[in-house]
Amino acid sequence: MLCQVFPERYQAQLDEKTARLRHLMPSLTNLTVFASSPQHYRARTEFRIWHEEDRSDYIMFNQETKERVIIKQCPMASKTIDELMPRLMAHITRTPVLRQRLFQIDFLSTLSGEMLVTLIYRRSIEGDSDWLAAAHQLKVDLPITHIIGRARKQKICLEQDYVMEQLQVDGKVFHYQQIENSFTQPNAEVAQKMLHWARKVSHHAQGDLIELYCGNGHFSIALAEFYNQVLATEISKTSVKSAQFNITANQIDNITVVKMAAEEISQALQGQSFNRLKDVDLTTYQFNTIFVDPPRSGLDDLTRKMVCEFERIIYISCNPETLARDLIEIEKTHEIIESALFDQFPYTHHIESGVFLIRKSA
After folding, report:
1. Mean confidence (pLDDT) of the chain
2. Which of 180, 189, 338, 352 is catalytic?
């Protein structure tokens, strides 16, 4: 599927995903299904560029046939990306210095109206004053907030390498720095629904929250008001820095972010000392809730065991198969109270889901 959408089939594919999720995890209770817009839902896209004589086109490759397919429109992308694509290509085609050996174009848009475009080259652009002048003019002529030029070991920013997203949830606005070439939620409208659900299951929380795999603070920032303190952990240095930026941008004072892997925080909670925690006194926390949003591989054995030691568990998953595997162990001690399906990726087999569990009574 190459940028295509099928609105008339959307509900049927969502029903199929719901049935598949229920089949994988029959114990799911209070399942809420959060639909996506059937078109214009992707906030970020990337396209290879194909040049032939005086023409240049966006292309994608058919995964089955490996053939290149020219992309004229992309109704899967946000409306701002879809509308910008032909205008941008027309501008590039008539500007030789922008077109020369252009290899790829990446788009990152926001609900707040910002647009970041990355032009990737197979030639040096460092010190190219003509390219720089043309890129500046591109920002003047088109609705582009920021432009990045990339080549091998080169990166030129006009004027910064991130956009600021504003997500509106439960009558509140949350501000998030989204850095080019780093992970961000691809479906911003569904991301708002995910935050709503996570806030809903946090409403009656007591004590403190610990979050693993926190990324840029996407969930911890929206949940902070329901907990006394939040300790958020993340292994990516870039994401940790972005999370700290976002905490300040949202004027939140009860979140601490540390650069640690999930297995390390598990060891720290068991008493092992880490230099990265020298300014964090774990004895001052009363962790009643743990929030996990692991990679597709799910939880490792050590982290799965650690998760079961908490009274309340909020588990966001991008892979229902590994979630089902993890729940086999978690449900020995905890009961599912709420569950959700978030259709982040319409017309694909991918399912994003959430499960809220509370420890069973003795």
Report:
1. 95
2. 352
CATH 3.40.50.150 domain range(s) in the chain:
7-39+183-359
| CATH superfamily of this structure's domain 7-39+183-359 | Vaccinia Virus protein VP39 (3.40.50.150)
Confirm whether 308 is a catalytic residue.
no
Is 344:44 a contact under the CB 8 Å cutoff? no
How open is the CA angle 110-116-117, to the nearest 5 degrees?
135
Give the 3-state secondary structure percentages of the chain, helix then strand then coil, rounded to 5. Answer: 35, 30, 35
Q: Find the catalytic residue in 83, 318, 329, 338.
A: 318
Beta bridge partners of 106: 46, 118
Candidate from 55-69, 85-99, 106-120, 187-201 with smallest mean pLDDT: 55-69
Confidence of residue 263 (pLDDT cuts 50, 70, 90): confident
Q: What backbone torsions phi and psi does residue 266 show, to the nearest 5 degrees? A: -60, -45
Please name the residue ranges forming H helices in 44-187.
79-93, 96-99, 129-141
Q: Which residue in 355, 65, 81, 20 sits closest to 201, CA to CA? A: 355
- Structure confidence by residue, pLDDT tens digits, 29-43: 999 999 999 999 999
Per-residue pLDDT band for 62 (boundaries 50, 70, 90) equals confident
Q: Which residue, among 210, 217, 198, 211, has the nearest Cα to 339 in the 3D structure? A: 198
Quick check: pTM over 0.90?
yes
Adjacency order of strands within the sheet including 287-292: 31-34, 334-342, 352-359, 312-317, 287-292, 208-212, 230-234, 255-259
Other CB atoms within a 10 A radius of the CB of residue 246 amount to: 25
Residue whose tokens read 């089955």: 64
Numbered ranges of CATH 2.40.50.1070 in the chain: 44-163
**What is the rounded CA–CA span in Å between residue 113 and residue 195?**
20
Give 146-178 pLDDT, tens digit per residue: 999 999 999 999 989 999 999 999 999 999 999
Residue 63 has a pLDDT of: 79
Q: Which fold has domain 44-163?
A: OB fold (Dihydrolipoamide Acetyltransferase, E2P) (2.40.50)
Catalytic residue at 165?
Answer: no
Pull the structure tokens for residue 182. 């780093």
